[in-house]
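B., you asked whether I could sanity-check this one before it goes into the benchmark set. Here's the sequence:
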Amino acid sequence: MSDHVFIITGGGTGAKVAESFIHLCATGRGPKNVHILMVDTDASNGNVMRTRKTADAYNEMQQYDWNVKTTASSSSWNPLASSEDVEAGLFGTDITLYRLTEPLDTVISGGLNTASTTDDKTRQVLELLYDESEREATCEDGFRARPNLGCLHLSEHLNNVLVHNENAKNFLSALANAATGSSTNVPVMVTASVFGGTGASLIPVVRECVERALDRTQGTMVNKEGLQWNAIKILPHYQPRERKASVDPDRFLLDTASALQFYSKVYRTSDAMYDGVYVIGSDNPGRNQVEAHLGSTAQSNPAYFEEFMAGLAMLDAIGQPSGSEQTQVRVFVPDGNQAQLQWQHLPYANTGVLREQFAYLLHLAAFHLRQGGQEDFSKGLDRMIASMSPGHLKQLGWYSSVIDRWANNHFPQYQQAGKRDRPALVQDGAGAGEWTFGAKRTEVAEYFARLLLWAETTLKGGEVDLLANTKSDYSAIHQAMANVGENDVDVDQEESDTAMVRTLRAALAAMARLHHNDVRLEVDVDVFQLIDSDGCIPLGITTPEVHQALRLNRRNGIPDEYTRTQVA
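And here's what the prediction gave me:
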């Protein structure tokens, strides 16, 4: 498998697929390097902006080593009483995002009518094929579910901007280097909706445009035959509550059928054919109702399960061996006898590992952000540290194991302080420096909040049962952290850590102990379940608590990005 994977997204739905894939990478299931080119002529599209911010938040987390791994031979504890590894590696993928959101230079000055002012025959053809609103559309905020308009312009637009836009050129350079330097095929995946405007217009033209741009910017020696192209087509899976201008939910299925019929003709020519095609949709798009908004920042639809499925399709495409005889078109059809989709029904090679890694990540997020009650051990980690007295902090086992010796070895200010003053110094997020609990506190809170807000609409719903709101008792994790040792967190004693990151890694190690029934713990393991008996991931946190945590970290506007168009 190639170390580099390339993703090209079209429009708001394509951006939301990239958002889901970023969270998949956070679980440790992603490839080594991911390059994402986001194509949209609406630079302020709310879903595009949200995905960019999610990638930024992910990259803040990714700079640290989140791996927790132990075996009987190398660790001070052995929860399995065997030589089996316990591993929870998060944020292992390097993600680079390239935004290609320049407005359409071909129509920005006045729409199609500009082409008919001097040519009467052109005017007659345009009047036959396009209504007045389409002829006058300048498309600053996309094609508004009109792929007939988009296909006319997007190819010419891409041929221009791919060779002149700096973000696009950097993406092409990375693609050329990967194709030339790899002994295996390099996956390139295109994902977009086929019922919208920009995305539906992108799918049939982007491969030819990219390959032409590679020749123009990188030279003709690029190994284009080493690129393995896959299309992940998203069918209707949500529904605007009412018709608004050109957005007509009653036309979604008709527009989809027309687009697929056109694609079937395009794919008959070998030059334009994708090596693999994934088709993802819903037989009940009405279960996801949104308020219709015509582009710009207002178009910020919630994340949905089908986009998560598209992320799994990407992992499947990445896992295909070079030159494999894979079925060219793959359609996921769940068992109709199942009332709800659960983890074991997902089209993934090892759903048990996927579920477990997601459980570690989601619980770490919830444990950090949880507000809890008055008791220290009912609070989340962030709130407990902020409210705890230095003397109490010093009594906690993980403080002496993963903070005290590390800080004493690396930071003179801590080393020179008296033992009574050291806990308060570690709690200080301002004067003591970038190694304290306060350092990266806001960035950690932002990514974890974005993850939980995404999961709220993606991993559960009327027909999806991957997440539960049962009250996991996080006091068990607090108690388990008392027995976590230095070797369980970071043998190398990384100076680049912060106290917050080290403590979260200790929490991850404690979760691994609880999940694998560490018999040394004087804790009733049943009070904390990483995965409940029904296979769901139970999170002991509410959405209002997530909102409160964001307010405490001065990130007040984030929830609106996930609920702006949501219908209660």
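One thing to flag: The chain is about 45% helix and 10% strand. Otherwise nothing jumped out at me.
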